[in-house]
Amino acid sequence: MRVLIDTNLLFSALYRNGSVPRQAYNKAVELPHQGLICERSLDELRDSFIKKFPDRANELDLFIISPTYASLRGGGLAEGKSGLRPPPL
Fold first, then answer.
1. Which domain holds residue 10?
2. Which of 1, 20, 43, 85 has CB atoms 3.0–4.6 Å from 66's, for a disulfide?
């Protein structure tokens, strides 16, 4: 199943480990599901997270790499091999 992940879920999943949004995010990116993330959402996440938590920018860098996800660009779907994963505990 393809699951669209919006900026609010991304922000909340990154902000609080173990939260309900983090659990929802983890479920959305695990097989058999495929997380769909709009490039615009990633840009918005970077801007808002760094603005609110400048001292946690390294967590954002760790979060924005890893499993397969599909990127929504220009109304189309582009398969990708980079995506999001929870930062290490």
1. 2-80
2. 85
